[in-house]
Amino acid sequence: MAVRLLLISLILASFQAVGQNEKFQINGSARAYVFSNELDIDEALDSVTTRKANYGHTLLDLGVSIFPNNKTEVIGMFRIRNELGGFWGGGTSFNVRQLTVKGVAGNLVKYEIGDIDLEMTPYTLYNFDEEGIVNEADAFKIRRDVVHYDLFYKGNSWRMQGAKTKFGLNFSKGIKGIDVTSFITRQRPALVDPERLYGGGTIKITQSDKLAIGFNSVSNFDITETIADSIRYRNGVHTMDVKYVIPASKKTKYIVKGESGISSVKYENYSDPLAPETISDWFYDVSVKGVNTEKGLSYELGYKDVGADFLSPGAQTKRVDYGKFPALYQQITNDVVGRSVNYTDVISGNAGNSIRISEELLAYNAAYNNTTPYGVATPNRRGVYLNLNRKDSVEFKKSFLRFGMFRQSRGTGTTLAKTFMLAEAGTDVHLNDFLKWKREFKVNAGIRYESTSRSGEEFEKVDLNSMLIDLGFSLEFAEKLDLLGGAKLWTVSGNTFINERNRFNAIDDFNIVSYDFSENTLAGGLRYRFNDKNVLTVQYQTFNLEDNVDQAIDYGMSQFTVLFNMKF
Amino acid sequence: MKKLIFLSFAFLALYSCRKDEADVVDGPNLNDLFGDFTILTNIEPNITTVDFDAGQELFFSGELSKNTDWVISLIGNDTGARRALTGSDKNVSISNAEWDGGANTFPGFGIEDVSVEITFPDEAIAPTLNYTLTVTGLKQDEGVLITSFEDGIGSNWTSFNQSTVSGGIVCSDDEAAKGDCYYKVSGDVPWDWAKGSVMIRPDEGTFGLQGSASNLYFNMGFKAVENVGPTNSFILFWFDEDENGDGFFDENTEDRIAYEYWSQDTEWDLISLNYADLQFDELGNTIETNGNGLMEPSKLISINVFFLANPENGVSTGYVDHLIFTTDEPYTP
Asked: What is the spatial distance between Cα A173 and Cα A274, in angstroms, rounded to a whole number?
């Protein structure tokens, strides 16, 4: 039997654009960002905090791609940043933002070394989206994209430092092909704790256009003898995913897919008596998806069960750590109370964001997301979900409905389990099509409703409801000049218990929280599109928190921003 | 259709794999943290008159609505002896609330009535339960009792008292740490720290202690009554070992291990010393002795107990009582 050895991807896409004589390319982006913030709080509550905070920066990300030969690319990106007001070098920083070598070895193996972006399955390595995004307006998206760009949140990948290889095998019989991806990264150097590496890979076997099976494995582990102490942390997640396509007719097909796997965590030689020796658990997530190409409809019905002790740092690390104070107005009131992260902080990039995966489950805000605070792989959830999507029609685009009913598989603090109901829906309405306008007039509409409940005695009851209305519009009222508007309206009421975990992820206490607040973030502004890559926006964003819980602090914040973003 | 049936079975197989965790709880119990406190079954003693000497058991039992701290305080009406039984389990039983007749420290309980008070310190609204017990027989000590001064001066004992000091056994004044009698030294010695001493020796041979020093504890009650404080008065022990087995102690060729214990307050102190640790000073250095330097309790032939106090402070008074060796753990009165 002859086995043909083929390359899955010979050369990276960027290579293809390189001419025979072209030895390097320059690309990158430039940005100017000016903020004028103002805190709005009752003078009687706070007479000490400075109300206004103005700052800004200009920066240049200068990327250079060097092609020593037609199979190798060296990418270097340097960031020069200057804080506004920092003349003659004051406040100026010069950093290496990216340094990557990539290419193809032996016409077979594609490799990347240095700064690499990694993504696997939602249960192994997946940088899941932050909460509060249903169908977001451009007014917010423009600013969020800046945050994502700075933090290397590209899709759902994590930026890491290490090496990655990929190669593929194609076969003439039996199996169509096998793709093999592997990586190893360094998560931290040895200092107080041992040096930590994170590695893994995927073997994807494509039997045919109908059937594909993947084997995925990631491991987060310490290297012993890199410090005097002999402690060692090890976490492994091993999963298998299957996708099976069943054609029902020419226009309809069913896709059965699923992923299942195990995780284990070991804490070796820890002197802390709270350190467990081993924690392990498993999960599965199966669904059937129907796709009607004629009507542009797809519907997916699934069931998943993620164990309470399923721990996968690569898939459960939150982008926003709600245990950290925001960068702006960290403390307010005359009592100098630490301010919790609100949603305008998340949009503006003032929240504490993750730049690497965390072995500890980070703090979350139950008001924003209590059902899946740790993404798809949130532990201790089992239940059904339904996703409906409709492909673009003339007037409506990106219409969707997502619904889930989950419950805990293990009670927290009581044998009674919490139940969760989550519903999200959204669409983009192109009013210009209704009105027969040439220029675009788009309305974003989205709504998210979440309910958490637990019965039982009075002291253990949970009843929490939150709703997010995510609205916005974009009106091109002159050539390339858009009027933007956006609103994120949170209404939250009820009570719940938030798990407080120790460093080994064991719940050691509960934070009782009662909510009764509305939190509104409104944004409006102008956007001028010089072209697809150069945009200037002038925006005003206001935030207001009205909290009816006793002792809670009502306050507001406003931001005026000027943002010029250019990519080249 | 076959595929559908296969998939259904596969799903059911997965569904049935999840272990039933209905009785497993993550984190602390919410009922314990926030539940209402009630006494479901009164916490009561199993008997109210107890003879520990006859081997009777006394324990408390009852049930609470939640796990919370509880304290059962026992106070001897005559001796003032105290014992506290503590726990946090909602089920109070013989496993966590048994009283063996002992006290937390000296003085020990006597034949007397004992007042019992049961409280719940973490509960804002909780009753206090009160009982009275009658002790008709005392608990038997475990260990090798050297003396509790109940039987008078031993035939081989020697004592020393300064000319202005009275020293000897005193009984029946309700001051003893254990039993009825104790040894008292009292007087004003303006010219010397030394007030008085008693050298305790068995009637013959050694005390018959075990050979191993590592798990052996020497225990004694000490109460400074006058001239009290960690810079004013102290007890000095000499532990003399007859290494050559000739029935005599030679301070020039055999081990004498000395130890000082300074008074703290005017309450009875329970001094408990691991015999093996006596060979080290407070910095952890091995002390020098004139013998073989080995800690050999089986060769212990005498214990000297000195009472010393600052001569500038006038009258000094100290009591000692109940010298006893215990194995594996310090003595509990």
From this structure: 54
User: Domain A13-567 belongs to what architecture?
Assistant: Beta Barrel (2.40)
DSSP-derived letter for residue A95 is: E
At residue A90, does pLDDT exceed 80? no
Q: Which long-range contacts (CB under 8 A, 24 or more apart) does A146-151 make?
A: A146/A31, A146/A33, A146/A349, A146/A563, A146/A565, A147/A347, A147/A348, A147/A349, A147/A353, A149/A29, A150/A349, A151/A319, A151/A353, A151/A355
Question: Partners of A24 in the beta sheet?
Answer: A66
Per-residue pLDDT tens digits for B220-270: 999 999 999 999 999 999 999 999 999 999 999 999 999 999 999 999 999
Question: Nearest-CA neighbor of B261 among B285, B278, B245?
Answer: B278
Tell me if A413 and B33 make a contact (CB, 8 A cut-off): yes
Beta-bridge partners for A75: A65, A100
Q: Percent of chain A beyond pLDDT 90?
A: 74
ipTM of predicted assembly, 2 dp: 0.76
| Average pLDDT of chain B to the nearest whole number | 92
The secondary structure of A399-460, three-state, reads EEEEEEEEECCCEECCCCCCEEEEEEEEEEEEHHHHHCCCCCEEEEEEEEEEEEEECCCHHH
At the topology level of CATH, where does B144-327 sit? Jelly Rolls (2.60.120)
Contact B25 A260 (CB under 8 A): no
- The answer to whether residues B301 and B154 touch, using CB atoms and an 8 Å cutoff, is no
- Hey, what are B269's tokens? 């102190």
Nearest CA in chain B to A383: B15
Find, among A404, A393, A402, A403, the residue nearest to A428 by Cα: A393
**How far is it, in rounded angstroms, from Cα A566 to Cα A30?**
5
Pick the CATH number of B30-137 from 2.60.40.2550, 2.60.40.640, 3.30.70.20, 3.40.190.10: 2.60.40.2550
- A137 within 8 A of A485, measured Cβ to Cβ: yes
| A414 vs B contacts (CB less than 8 Å) | 25, 29-31
Closest approach of chain B CAs to the CA of A26, in angstroms? Answer: 52
Those residues with Cβ within 8 angstroms of residue B282's Cβ, 6 or more apart along the chain or in another chain: none
Residue of B7, B12, B24, B30 to mutate, testing the A interface (most A Cβ within 10 Å of its Cβ) = B30
Largest CA distance in chain B: 112
For A395-413, give one letter per residue: b (16+ CB within 10 A) or e. Answer: eeeebbebbbbbbbbbbbb
Amino acid at B43: I
Name the token pair of A374: 């740790």
Distance from CA of A465 to the nearest CA of B (A): 21
Strand locations in A119-176, DSSP E?
158-170
Domains of chain A, by residue range, sit at 13-567
Give the gap in angstroms from C-alpha B5 to the nearest C-alpha of chain A: 13
CA–CA dist A330, A352 (Å, integer): 11
